[in-house]
């Protein structure tokens, strides 16, 4: 056969092979995610955000007991108007009133976010605690406890359903009950967002380098502190997760029919801070972040019984 006649065929084969390979790779990843969702009870969104290493870890062991909590919260931050010389509003600053955190249903959260996006306005003209306006954000927080035969895994994932009104240094943590202990050097934190590229007119997923977050092990759990995104381009769906291994605190095995607790906590900075922040989780306690008047805590509770 004439070689010139073969060229179109070879070229077509060259184009087809990578697409088949890519589809196969995507299918494999999707299958692994679905297996994790089935085994752990976590959301599909959580499974999709797992990096390859964590996805492999989750799939490498068979759960004995598991529980998953998925909750939604409204965060209302009072702000004050700053007026110029002509009495026109120049800017908004966070007021001294503390943000109000309210747990709401999933349906209510998405309904409120949709209404807010229709208005295309993060600042409402309501009056809260004598402030002239309020800034409203919505946060989803998912917490999971899974026990294996010898140890276990605890995880917490957050998603800003609408970008946080104030972007500073936030903290996600998981506090453990007295009968459960974190295993050192097992924590993994991932921070993502969808960012709009005006040159391509497309959204793309950005994952921040893990070195930009600080994981800290406490007697009662683990925390990860990080900075919320503030990119030059539009962004949405900012999210992240913290996961680490746990073990029975005072023995080598889990106790039959015993209850084990984990509290997923998200501390959101709502005002400017001078200097550093203090973070701690005491034995059997809750996540504590200081200065307390600069953070709003959002908590979910999960409890599992070893069977």
- Major β-sheet profile: 10 strands, antiparallel
Strand content: over 45%
Identify low-pLDDT runs: 1-25, 81-95, 121-131
From the alpha carbons, calculate the radius of gyration and give it in angstroms: 23 Å
By DSSP, the count of extended strands is 17
Query: How far from one another are the termini?
Result: 69 Å
Question: How is this structure best described in words?
Answer:
By secondary structure, this protein is an alpha+beta fold. 21% of the residues lie in helices and 45% in strands. Strands 1, 2, 3, 4, 5, 6, 8, 9, 10 and 13 form a ten-stranded antiparallel beta sheet that branches. Strand 15 and strand 16 form a beta hairpin. Helix 1 crosses helix 3. The protein is globular and about 55 Å long. It starts with a helix and ends with a strand.
């Amino acid at each position: 056969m004439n070689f010139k006649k073969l060229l179109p065929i070879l070229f077509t084969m060259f184009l087809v092979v990578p697409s088949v390979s890519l589809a196969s790779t995507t299918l494999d990843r999707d299958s692994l995610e679905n297996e994790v969702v089935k085994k752990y009870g976590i959301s599909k969104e959580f499974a999709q955000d797992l990096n390859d290493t964590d996805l492999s870890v989750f799939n490498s062991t068979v759960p004995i007991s598991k529980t998953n909590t998925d909750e939604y919260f409204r965060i209302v931050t009072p702000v004050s108007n700053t007026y110029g010389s002509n009495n026109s509003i120049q800017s908004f600053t966070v007021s001294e009133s503390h943000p109000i955190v309210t747990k709401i249903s999933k349906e209510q959260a998405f309904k409120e976010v949709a209404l807010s996006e229709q208005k295309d306005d993060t600042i409402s003209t309501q009056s809260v605690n004598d402030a002239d306006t309020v800034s409203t954000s919505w946060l989803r927080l998912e917490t999971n406890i899974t026990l294996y035969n010898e140890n276990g895994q605890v995880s917490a994932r957050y998603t800003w359903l609408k970008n946080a009104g104030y972007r500073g240094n936030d903290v996600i943590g998981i506090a453990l009950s007295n009968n459960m202990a974190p295993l050192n050097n097992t924590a993994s934190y991932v921070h993502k967002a969808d960012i709009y590229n005006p040159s391509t007119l497309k959204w793309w997923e950005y994952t921040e380098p893990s070195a930009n977050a600080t994981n800290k092990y406490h007697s009662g759990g683990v925390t990860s502190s990080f900075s919320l995104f503030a990119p030059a381009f539009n962004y949405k769906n900012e999210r992240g997760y913290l996961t680490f291994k746990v073990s029975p605190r005072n023995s080598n095995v889990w106790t039959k029919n015993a209850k084990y607790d984990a509290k997923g906590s998200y501390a959101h900075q709502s005002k400017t801070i001078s200097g550093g922040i203090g973070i701690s989780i005491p034995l059997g306690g809750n996540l504590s972040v200081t200065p307390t008047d600069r953070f709003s805590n959002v908590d979910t509770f999960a409890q599992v019984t070893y069977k």
